[in-house]
Design goal:
Largest sheet of chain B: 2 strands, antiparallel
Largest sheet of chain C: 10 strands, mixed
CATH architecture of chain B: Orthogonal Bundle
CATH superfamily of the largest domain in chain C: Periplasmic binding protein-like II
Structural class of chain C: alpha/beta
Order of helices and strands of chain B: HEEHHHHHHHHHHHH
CATH architecture of the largest domain in chain C: 3-Layer(aba) Sandwich
Radius of gyration of chain B: 23 Å
Structural class of chain B: mainly alpha
Number of strands of chain C: 10
Oligomer: heterotrimer
Shape of chain C: globular
Strand content of chain B: under 5%
Distance between the termini of chain C: 56 Å
Number of domains of chain B: 1
Strand content of chain C: 15-25%
Shape of chain B: globular
Chains: A mainly alpha (277), B mainly alpha (275), C alpha/beta (347)
Largest interface: A-B, 96 and 89 residues
Chain lengths: 277, 275, 347
């Protein structure tokens, strides 16, 4: 029995490894060619750090990194808050309103990026808003929030509606019930929403391209304009992004491991309390 | 429980402003002629009639076909991946799920370029084939290249919602099924798969939307002759400058996708309950 | 709730603060094609004139046009010939004050006075060139070159060629091969060209590639490719097996030129920038970086002797009488071509 189980785990591990290989192959290639000593993206001709030197001396790219990061962070923050409160409110709304909002919410997800982009572009120009950082940020919030709502809403819906009531019966204000009871219970959904929003925003090209102006560019726009002569400077940048993410990942995974012991105790206590009620 | 109803209001205003109004503008474009300014417009349905020409219908069918194939592969690989990940300890699970999301943070265009250097005629795969004494093969500008690029790009969008559903499943249910005499296969289809349906529907919806509307991946990996609906819309808006026709195609695409979503929603037990 | 709104407000404010930056220096907004300038020249100009340049790039003339139509304003644009003609027609450009452009003597007179702007009232050439066929000398038989554009239909090279994924350039090839004008609006001529392209597609299996073909040709993936002369020069500098030729039947001569957008508030500075780009040394530097042919005589001669020595694609033959410059197409004709092109590509 045990032996069979071990075999199965090995099989699972192998399959997962293959999938990750498939997902990471292009990234691996990107990283390797960032150290290429020539411009080629198909032949590795020797090790060099020249593309990293180029990267840091290229103020255009560095500025784009700043724009990409700050827009992604702000858009994620705002759309997570907006999306979460909407999802919570939504579950308590009348059926008609619920349906209207859910359907409107599906529009940016359903529409091809380019259509959303053109729509927003026409909107901004007809409202005479000067295009730049602000329009890019607004557009990013506009297309990130629906993703947050789609990931949070199912979680909210699966909540027992009496939970918040119970908390309020016990003297909690609606705000306390929200932050102390509901939010912790839907935090996985929120976390998924944050991840989606950030990745959508960080990776976006089409919408940013159409709603930006005044020289405000994100990384994707720089890459797209480089298509003419691909050059490994951008590979160097991606390599750095990957390394930063890896480091963050290690930190994120080490910290909860320390906290976990405490949490388990807390959860046990809470469960006990609930049983008493 | 009426306390939170008001929370919807900010988004209601926001979505009217940022979603509904742009959409109305696009609808206006799709049923008018008169160029790219809304100054002297005239009502017409010719933009929609034009779409009925065989060539555009063909493009449309091809997009659906490629979209379905991509979704199928994403689903097949993605479901098994999510399922296998669930077999590990909680810490290992969250680590692996993070590994699934990381590729999404790396610029799509760049990953597509990387596939180009892997698959091109003198690329990495062919170099290896030649070294092994095999004949080099043509991958670039084929359905294969486009689908590889799309699956690799969209797989995380399938894995994450499925994983979220799977990880929610109460293990006692599976044990109960076993206790009641169900074998592994029965348990999987009657319990696990059923309970993971919301995630599956979500994943299929997302990957389908992305693969039907993308234009960058087919353009780079499929070459200029690889014309999908997204490319058609892009061409109309950007190189032809016929916003009216472009808007009409987008409206048609949106409607088709709406129908597809409605059908898929029916499969989601959570949603069906509500109706 | 208050807390959430406070967070929202702070976030919105910080976003506004970011857009509000920028000093009192005069700012010049330039919109050019991607990878189409040696960026060190931008900083040089900023230093010399104590100003700031906001530099944006586009991937095609049409994108640029879309952006302008959406209400975006710039000081300097660098579009191609037919787009300049259109912008002039639509009254989008400012007339130049040539007295402010002291370097005008540096310009090669052959590149001036073209049909899109006969008296150069609005535009100053930036780069120019032709469209031709790049071929691998180790694969392609020199004798086959006499076929001109029909070389692209020689079945010896089936599956071994790149067409350029551009509607106008592809129709240009077909129309020239058939002996018609590349600017024709005659539907039957266009239809014949369409058939030429369809037959070529069916017999030759070409790849309609974008600029990714540059990398592929350097790597030697295919034997034939339709390229702009400037890209040809760049590719040949990297792969010595390649050569470039322009069919006798005639080809497209193209110009990309600097223009000042109507309503620019920095007309003086814009003129200074144009003049700066015509400086012999700056033009040479720019041409060396981009690989395209400079209309500044001294820079052109210098490149022929140094960076692009022996590379004939750097010296496009614009004197072929059969060559033409693209003209502006009215919306209807453009739509007609565009629909046919979609049919050629999507099958």
């Amino acid at each position: 029995m045990r032996k069979k189980h071990g075999h199965r785990k090995l099989g699972a591990g192998l399959y997962i490894a293959l999938c990750f290989l498939f997902l990471y192959l292009p990234i691996l290639v990107t990283m390797i060619f960032s150290f290429n000593s020539s411009k080629s993206l198909t032949k590795f001709e020797g090790f060099s750090l020249m593309w990293y030197e180029r990267l840091f001396s290229d103020s255009e790219i560095m500025e784009a990194v700043y724009v990409s990061l700050s827009v992604a962070l702000l858009a994620t923050l705002i759309s997570t808050i907006l999306g979460t409160i909407t999802a919570i409110g939504l579950s308590k709304s009348r059926k008609l309103l619920k349906e209207v909002i859910v359907n409107i919410n599906n529009v940016p997800i359903m529409n091809p990026d380019i259509v959303t982009a053109i729509g927003l572009m026409i909107l901004f120009s007809s409202m005479k808003i000067e295009k730049g950082y602000l329009t890019m940020l607004l557009a990013h919030i506009a297309f990130c929030t629906p993703y947050v709502i789609t990931s949070v809403y199912p979680k909210v819906r699966s909540l027992d509606p009496s939970i918040a009531n119970a908390a309020m019966d016990l003297g909690a204000t609606p705000f306390q019930a929200l932050t102390k009871v509901i939010l912790p219970m839907i935090k996985e959904g929120i976390f998924a929403g944050v991840l989606l929003a950030f990745t959508m925003s960080f990776d976006d090209f089409v919408i940013s391209y159409f709603v930006t102006g005044n020289g405000v560019k994100n990384i994707s726009i720089i890459v797209y304009n480089m298509t003419k002569r691909t050059n490994p400077t951008i590979n160097a940048l991606s390599t750095i992004v990957i390394v930063v993410i890896m480091v963050t990942l290690v930190i994120v995974n080490v910290v909860p491991a320390i906290n976990k012991k405490k949490n388990k105790k807390k959860m046990a206590l809470e469960l006990e309390n609930m049983n008493h009620i | 429980m009426k306390h939170y109803v008001k929370l919807v209001r900010p988004y209601l205003i926001w979505s009217v402003l940022m979603i509904v109004i742009p959409l109305i503008l696009i609808v206006i474009y799709s049923v008018t002629t008169g160029g790219n300014t809304l100054v002297n417009i005239q009502f017409t349905l010719s933009n929609f009639k034009k779409f009925a020409e065989p060539i555009y219908l063909q493009v449309f069918m091809k997009s659906l076909q490629i979209g379905v194939i991509t979704v199928l592969f994403c689903f097949l690989f993605g479901y098994i991946l999510a399922y296998k990940i669930c077999k590990f300890s909680e810490r290992a699970q969250s680590f692996m799920i993070l590994l699934v999301t990381i590729p999404m943070w790396i610029n799509t265009l760049l990953r597509t370029y990387a596939w180009m250097s892997i698959l091109s005629d003198n690329g990495i795969v062919n170099t290896i084939l030649t070294k092994l004494g095999l004949d080099p093969m043509t991958f670039m500008y084929t359905d294969f290249a486009v689908i590889v690029g799309m699956v690799s790009d969209f797989l995380p969008f399938m894995v994450i919602p499925i994983y979220t559903s799977l990880s929610k499943i109460d293990h006692s249910l599976i044990e109960a099924a076993h206790d009641l005499g169900a074998n592994n296969v029965q348990t999987f289809f009657k319990v696990t798969f059923k309970l993971s349906l919301p995630g599956v529907v979500n994943g299929i919806m997302m990957t389908f939307l992305l693969s039907v509307s993308t234009f960058v991946i087919p353009k780079l990996l499929g070459g200029g002759q690889y014309m999908l609906i997204g490319n058609l819309i892009e061409t109309q808006f950007i190189s032809v400058g016929n916003w009216n026709f472009g808007s009409a195609i987008s409206m048609i695409l949106a409607v088709v996708i709406l129908i597809a979503i409605t059908i898929m929603r029916r499969m989601d037990p959570d949603d069906a309950e509500e109706d | 709730m208050k807390k959430t709104f406070a967070v929202l407000a702070v976030a919105a404010l910080s976003a506004l603060a970011l857009t509000g930056c920028g000093g009192s220096k005069e700012t010049l907004k330039i919109y050019n094609a991607g990878e189409y300038i040696d960026t060190s020249l931008i900083s040089k100009f900023e230093k010399e004139n104590d100003c700031k340049i906001v530099y944006e790039t586009f991937d095609s003339n049409e994108t640029m046009y879309t952006k302008i139509m959406s209400g975006e304003t710039y000081d300097i644009l660098v579009p191609s010939d037919y787009m300049i003609e259109r912008l002039i027609k639509e009254d989008k450009l400012e007339k130049l004050d040539w007295s402010k452009i002291s370097n005008k003597e540096n310009l090669n007179p052959d590149t001036m006075g073209q049909v899109y702007d006969p008296d150069n009232t609005y535009s100053v050439p930036y780069f120019y060139g032709t469209v031709g066929i790049l071929y691998d000398t180790t694969v392609v038989d020199e004798a086959d070159l006499k076929d001109g554009w029909n070389l692209l239909r020689n079945e010896k090279y089936k599956g071994n060629l790149y067409m350029y994924d551009s509607e106008r350039d592809s129709f240009m090839i077909a129309l020239e091969a058939l002996g018609y004008s590349m600017n024709t609006t005659d539907r039957s001529e266009i239809d014949q060209a369409y058939n030429w392209l369809i037959e070529q597609r069916d017999t030759m299996d070409p790849i309609y590639a974008g600029d990714d073909m540059i990398d592929n040709m350097i790597a030697g993936n295919k034997a034939l490719a339709v390229v702009y002369s400037g890209d040809g020069a760049y590719i040949m500098a990297e792969n010595e097996n390649l050569d470039f030729f322009e069919p006798e039947e005639g080809t497209n001569t193209w110009y990309d030129a600097m223009v000042i957008m109507k309503g620019s508030e920095h007309v003086d500075l814009a003129h200074k920038f144009i003049n700066f780009m015509l400086d012999n040394e700056n033009a040479a530097k720019n041409s060396a970086f981009v690989g395209y042919t400079s209309p500044v005589t001294a820079a052109y001669e210098k490149m022929q002797e140094e960076d692009y020595k022996g590379i004939d694609a750097y010296v496009p033959n614009i004197n072929n009488e059969n060559n033409e410059v693209f003209r502006y197409q009215d919306a209807e004709t453009k739509q007609y071509y565009a629909d046919l092109w979609t049919k050629v590509k999507a099958y």
